[in-house]
Design a protein that fits this description.
The chain is mainly beta. The chain is built from 2 helices and 8 strands. The structure holds zinc ion. The site of zinc ion has 8 residues, from loops.
Length: 91
């Protein structure tokens, strides 16, 4: 299977993101460290698969967020994201 065939959008990472952030993060506004453009998490390109989640910028392809599950826990690398705006939960 080619990498392009494995690609989904960030909405496919909703389950993994919810486990870490305890609520739906697909509406969070995240700014790319590569091109400084902001996008909702749900529109990032998801290249994850069995190994975890790799979310890339839809504008410049920078890796913005990685989540890898191991027997010892989950690793999250957000070094490709400069700012993350998490919306308030509706009351
Ligand atoms: Zn970018």
């Amino acid at each position: 299977m080619r990498v392009e065939e494995m690609r989904l959008d960030g909405n496919a990472a909703a389950g993994a993101l919810r486990e870490i952030f305890a609520h739906d993060m697909t509406t969070a506004l995240v700014t790319c460290a590569g091109c400084a453009r902001a996008s909702p998490m749900g529109v990032l390109m998801n290249y994850g698969g069995p190994m975890g989640v790799i979310l890339r910028c839809p504008h410049c392809d920078t890796v913005m967020l990685r989540i890898v599950s191991t027997p010892g826990g989950r690793y999250m690398d957000a070094s490709g994201s400069s700012v993350m705006l998490i919306p308030e939960r509706p009351t």
